[in-house]
What does this fold into?
Amino acid sequence: MTTLPAHRLMALAAREGDTHAVGEALFHAHFAEGRNLADPDVLVAAGAAGGLPEARVRALLAGEEGLAEVRAAIAQAQAMGIRAVPTFVIDGRLAVQGAQSPETFAATLRQALGAGDDGSGHAATGDPAGCGPDGCRV
It folds into this structure.
């Protein structure tokens, strides 16, 4: 299953609809109902939850609108070393990947404010690549 169509729908919702409602509908369809996020009917229903007309969603899926932009965003994330969902990029230079504790987020936010930086350009986690339990440099 590819999630590229769902990513394109989210990009459309960001421009023309309610991204929160579309995202919630996609999560529910996938995680609660086991639906395929590449199925046009699933995407139309998710789009409708976010105020997008069926014809608009079907036109998106039938063409290449937004495809290059979504692929570019995915390539950028991969180049930044993002490999987990969710990933939160903070201040364009720190990332918290995967499900993490509130303490991890707090430590990463302190790093972003400069309190956790050891001055070497790496996170103060002891990892030379700048990654550790408190986040990763991106």
Q: What stands out?
A: DSSP finds six helices and four strands in the chain. The chain has two domains: 4-70, 87-137.
